[in-house]
Design a protein that fits this description.
6 helices; globular
């Protein structure tokens, strides 16, 4: 098993946090992991992306040219990375951030209505957890219990009271993902 993921969107959407959660959950699953963030001078509002590789085997480089899975949360990210998804790979996008729908017949395309669902939950900070839940529904390469462990590892202790709502959002994301 080798999952090569690019997550890209605007700063403030939880792109880097989502990548870090995946990485820590992979470590808790005793898998090999790389996490390579990239962002502009301003994190919030600027573009951000992170490459995460989770594998049962040795990972030789964290730098990739193609991905088995892409989570693209805005139009600039979709435009930049759509052609770097491997044939047979997965594209996941939020319905709010994409104006021109993706057009490729050789990949599996999924949408998650995360922005509206986060608003319904009255907590916009769970946006990334809704997306992550969708990913783990279609590609369960890490255990949900290890995502919860990763939340304890990545969130400061003063925010540990938010872990239950994050786990609720993760499960809700699994319910709302739709194949296109």
């Amino acid at each position: 098993m080798k999952e090569e993921i690019i997550i890209s969107g605007f700063g403030g959407q939880g792109v880097l946090s989502m990548g870090k959660l995946i990485a820590y959950a992979g470590i808790a699953d005793n898998k090999n992991v790389t996490w390579l963030p990239a962002y502009g001078a301003e994190q919030r509002g600027g573009t951000a992306n992170v490459t995460v590789v989770v594998s049962d085997q040795k990972i030789y480089s964290p730098i990739l040219n193609t991905y088995s899975t892409a989570i693209l949360l805005n139009q600039p990210s979709l435009d930049r990375f759509i052609n770097q998804i491997k044939p047979g790979g997965i594209l996941i996008y939020d319905t709010f951030g994409i104006q021109n729908l993706p057009r490729r017949n050789d990949i599996n395309i999924y949408e998650v209505n995360a922005m509206d669902t986060a608003a319904e939950m009255r907590n916009m900070k769970v946006f990334n957890m809704l997306i992550l839940g969708g990913l783990l529904k279609v590609r369960p390469f890490v255990q949900l219990g290890n995502v919860e462990k990763a939340l304890y590892k990545t969130l400061p202790p003063r925010h540990h009271d938010l872990i239950p709502i994050n786990m609720e959002a993760l499960k809700k994301g699994m319910d709302i993902i739709k194949k296109i």
